[in-house]
Specification:
Number of helices: 10
Structural class: alpha+beta
CATH superfamily of the largest domain: Porin
Shape: elongated
Strand order of the largest sheet: 3-4-5-6-7-8-9-10-11-14-15-16-17-18-19-20
Distance between the termini: 112 Å
Strand content: 25-35%
CATH class of the largest domain: Mainly Beta
Radius of gyration: 43 Å
Helix content: 25-40%
CATH architecture of the largest domain: Beta Barrel
Order of helices and strands: HHHHEHEHHHEEEEEHEEHEEEEEEEEEEE
CATH topology of the largest domain: Porin
Largest sheet: 16 strands, antiparallel, barrel
Length: about 525
């Protein structure tokens, strides 16, 4: 029995070697799939042969040779795990440079030693914020420019080595950055060579009004009509704080509502009735110190150009949206305006204006008015309290030596006007209004308006408003006209605004059925 066992053991290595040789391809196939099934036949063979202690020289050697591919495959699989990411140590393979990266820390060290980057507006270099590679390259480039100037005075050799390494790591970004700067400089040079002016900016506005009556007045033909106005403003600044304005304007005239006293210029167009181009505004405004602003006008200086409006209805279609007493047709030509800010919220506005024709006439002149309908001079002042909070107030005094008191409504006598405005800001909406008392030799009049405006109505920048009031009536008719307007001002972008509006007017001119309702759509283009 012992001889048989001994012969079997002697023959075992040869038999095992032959079996392994015959099954070599099968073992290779199984080894290829070792990533997904680690418990394979070769592993079981190893566990069966291991207890054979007598074959310590032959069996382990052959098994090790056969098992080696298995260990090799397992090692490759381990390298394919996330540990492989740790082998990417080159910074140029990263999308961002983090505060933990050596490049970030190296640049921060250079900044702290040589002050080569001024940093953010608060003059700090925020070392805990990650940067894109191009932001980092921009900072590195700025640092290199500063350090290049310091080389002559000596620089730490270690810092030079750091700079060389940074340049190598970010060579591509530095080249791209310099290329972009060169291209930008070329674009700037081209713009400077072809720009309209180095000191003047051109701004334009075009208004289209489409109006249709929903009702008619007996004996008066009224149909859908279209009016327009175009303005080109040439604004020039010599100091950055002043403004020389020359405005060219063409307008086709007012809406039909403007033909009736009290609803003068309801469209806000202030046109001449034809589309002839003319110089409308011609003035120079400049500050004197920190508290005083001065306006010198050669043409079209009206009361509401200087005395400010604080009521919230400025986006309405009808000019009646503003205080009617500020629409006074006094002067309207050459003059001077002054604003003095006692504080940031308490401001005094004052003006003196004379009709341009009167200013040119030797018989009337700049400081002499006339009591005839036509050229006149006017002066006035307004004290405004306009904090950023809840309540805003304004008190106004105006005096005219003659001519038109309101556009389209005239008197040949001296006129004194006392008015006031109030606005309550509730955050999402405003409630405001104005009132004025007009006194002249032989009569007086009282005018007012009030309403509410909702800001950011259904869309950012949109405004919904409704207001009404009593317009001036100084031509001897029965009562003052009464009006109501509702409007929705919708800015589609910074260039286009559309404002639909409905206007109700009760003219009170002694006529039968003297009320009228208009639908108006105003389209405004700005450029």
């Amino acid at each position: 029995m012992s001889k048989l066992l001994w012969k079997s053991l002697l023959a075992a290595p040869a038999a095992l070697g032959a079996a392994l040789a015959v099954s070599g391809s099968a073992v290779a196939v199984e080894a290829a799939a070792i990533e997904f099934a680690t418990e394979t036949a070769p592993v079981e063979l190893a566990t069966e042969v291991a207890p054979v202690e007598l074959a310590t020289e032959a069996a382990p050697v052959q098994l090790a040779a056969a098992a080696a591919p298995v260990e090799s495959v397992v090692g490759v699989d381990a390298l394919n795990q996330p540990v492989q990411l740790a082998q990417i140590t080159s910074v140029n393979q990263l999308t961002d440079v983090l505060p933990t990266d050596w490049a970030f820390q190296a640049l921060q060290s250079l900044v702290e030693q040589y002050g080569c980057i001024q940093g953010y507006p608060d003059r700090t270099y925020r070392g805990n914020a990650s940067l894109t590679r191009y932001e980092f390259a921009a900072g590195l480039n700025a640092c290199l420019d500063v350090i290049a100037q310091l080389v002559a005075t000596g620089i730490n050799p270690d810092d030079l080595a750091t700079i060389r390494r940074l340049q190598e790591e970010f060579q591509a970004e530095l080249n791209t950055l310099r290329g972009r700067v060169d291209a930008l400089e070329a674009d700037v040079a081209e713009l400077e060579a072809n720009q309209f002016s180095t000191t003047t900016k051109l701004r334009g506005q075009v208004d289209f009004h489409l109006a249709t009556p929903f009702d008619t007045i007996p004996g008066v033909e009224d149909s859908t009509n279209f009016n327009s106005r175009a303005r080109l403003n040439f604004d020039t600044s010599f100091t950055g704080e002043d403004r020389l304005r020359v405005r060219l304007q063409a307008s086709s005239g007012d809406l039909p509502l403007g033909d009736i006293g009290g609803f003068n210029n309801v469209s806000g167009l202030q046109g001449e009735g034809v589309l002839d181009l003319r110089v409308d505004d011609f003035y120079y405004a400049f500050p004197v110190g920190n508290r005083i602003d001065v306006t010198l006008a050669a043409n079209s200086l009206s009361v509401d150009d200087v005395l400010r409006e604080i009521t919230p209805f400025g986006n309405g279609v009808a000019d009646a949206a503003g205080p009617q007493y500020l629409d006074a047709g006094m002067g309207g030509g050459a003059g001077v305006g002054l604003s003095f800010a006692f504080t940031d919220s308490i401001i005094l506005d004052a003006l003196y204006t004379v009709n341009t024709a009167g200013a040119r006439s030797p018989s009337i002149g700049v400081f002499r008015g006339t009591n005839e309908l036509g050229p006149s001079q006017a002066y006035g002042a307004q004290l405004s309290f306009i904090p950023e909070g809840f309540l805003s107030l304004a008190a106004t005094y105006l005096h005219s030596d003659g001519g038109q008191v309101f556009q389209g409504v005239g008197t040949g006598k001296a006129v004194d006007t006392y008015g006031g405005q109030v606005n309550l800001n509730f955050g999402g909406f405003n409630i405001g209004g104005s009132a004025g008392f007009v006194n002249f030799d032989g009569g007086d009049d009282f005018i007012w308006n009030a309403g509410v405006v909702f800001d950011d109505f259904f869309a950012e920048g949109a405004q919904l408003g409704i207001y009404g009031g009593q317009a001036p009536q100084l031509i001897g008719s029965v009562d003052n006209p009464f009006y109501i307007e509702g409007f929705l001002n919708v800015p589609f972008n910074e260039f286009l605004t559309i404002t639909p509006s409905v206007i109700y007017a009760d003219y009170n001119n002694g006529l039968a059925d003297e009320t009228l309702i208009y639908g108006v759509i105003r389209t405004t283009f700005r450029f």
